[in-house]
Amino acid sequence: MPAQHVVLKNKKIAARETLSVYFERPHDFQYKAGQSIDLTVLNPPETDAEGNTRAFTLASAPFERDLMITTRVRNSAFKRTLQKMPIGAEVQIDGPFGNMTLHSNETRLAVFLAGGIGITPFRSIILQAVKEKKTHKLILFYSNRTPRDAAFIDELKTVELVYGNFLLIATMTGSGLPDDEWSGEREYISYRMMHRYGGDLSNAVYYCAGPPKMVGALRTMLNENSVNDDDIRSEEFSGY
Ligand SMILES: Cc1cc2nc3c(=O)[nH]c(=O)nc-3n(C[C@H](O)[C@H](O)[C@H](O)COP(=O)(O)OP(=O)(O)OC[C@H]3O[C@@H](n4cnc5c(N)ncnc54)[C@H](O)[C@@H]3O)c2cc1C
Looking at the whole model, is its pTM more than 0.85? Predict the structure, then answer.
């Protein structure tokens, strides 16, 4: 699809230092849950060596009306521009790209492994699967330092309550987190943890997203437990 301009409709805080940004969806813009776009800010007041374009997963699900991205607010010229951008301003989007999309064989378990902002493709995939009444069993392991960093966690907990095929295992790995703030898992995601919640994983397809270091570590962990690369899909969020 050729690059096109879209209008900024809304911005919402999604977690600590994390912003969801909503854009009007062009009537002819089709995408699959889990895909990404290149977003370019137009005539920004400032720029830096990384330029005016970043890749973002569409955290919105295809059945939703708007296009939505979610990002950590960092101190780059691009992020400052995005933060200050007024409602009604235009940006350019190019795409959709990528194959972080749910496998079609509904008898195979989907294991999603998200590090921090790596949750974005999984929000889209899980909400779309629920909407389409897919029968895949879906398990999400979602790692953050603290609950305040975990975008969409309340929404995903609600999905878990109403959708029997979805299990959410959130883990908060920050040290010194008081018990009254978090009573769930605190360990890093491991094969042992996945096995404890997922049972027989021999039929699973794995999806990893987040900072490059974490995605690399997850892939190594999976390979060390005899998971074939053919059964792993991953996306590294460069810049984190
Ligand atoms: C397919 C895809 C999907 C993504 N989805 C999301 C998303 O949903 N949400 C989100 O927040 N981010 C996502 N990202 C990452 C996003 O494109 C930005 O890189 C990130 O948000 C950081 O941007 P920044 O402006 O804060 O920092 P930047 O100015 O881009 O960079 C911060 C630091 O990282 C370094 N850096 C930048 N690019 C690279 C690179 N390619 N390799 C190594 N180092 C680099 C810079 O030199 C700098 O030191 C995605 C990336 C990809 C490739």
Answer: yes
